[in-house]
Amino acid sequence: MNKRLDDLPNSALKSAGVQARRRLTQRPTHKAQRWAASKRTDMDPRALFFSRYDPLRRFHLDRVWERLNEDQLRFQPARLNSVAWNLWHVARAEDVGINGFVADRPQVVDDEHWLERLGLDVRHQGTGQTAAEANEVTTRLNLDNLVGYSKAVEHRTRLVVESLDPAVLDTVLEPATIHRVLFDEGFAHPNAGWIEQAYTGWSRGKCLIHFALSHTYQHVGEIGVLASLQDVDAFGS
Q: Are residues 10 and 69 in the same domain?
């Protein structure tokens, strides 16, 4: 008959614990290692990227445009940025992050006069703005052209990732590249010079994930809150 654990003497419990730890820490047998290797599949990092990028675009960003009208997009509570500002901010960050840092190529904003079409005269992405400057972006933005710009950025990101050599992802950004993109190409607001140090040491792989995925997902949360303050479900099924 099996004994309950609390019926066993302390010495027996101690011995059982030692044996269990030994089993857990034993190196796997060659047979186990071969089995694990047979089950392991190597995922293309590009496929992994798109498995997160596609739902971000289709189920989040696209739905914001479908569900919110112009007044709701420009709605700006005290001490918060508008949905429109957030959409502009993530598009600019992705444009610069993917093209300037990952691919080292010109930005989408310089194609087809996007800056002028957006109704703005600033090249940065908003970090470091004063409240008055952020309000001005919200007021001046041409929302129809912001949709077009965002789509153009998405299209370029897809082209970059599809043609990307995965080995490039491990390379670290040169300090000169960071400085050029931030200050010569206008990514950094004058009040945001600190981000030069923040990006120092980043790999191109980290830039890809941050600027096209995690940064945007963060602002999707903010957009959801801004919509909910207006009794709107920004994403819904």
A: no
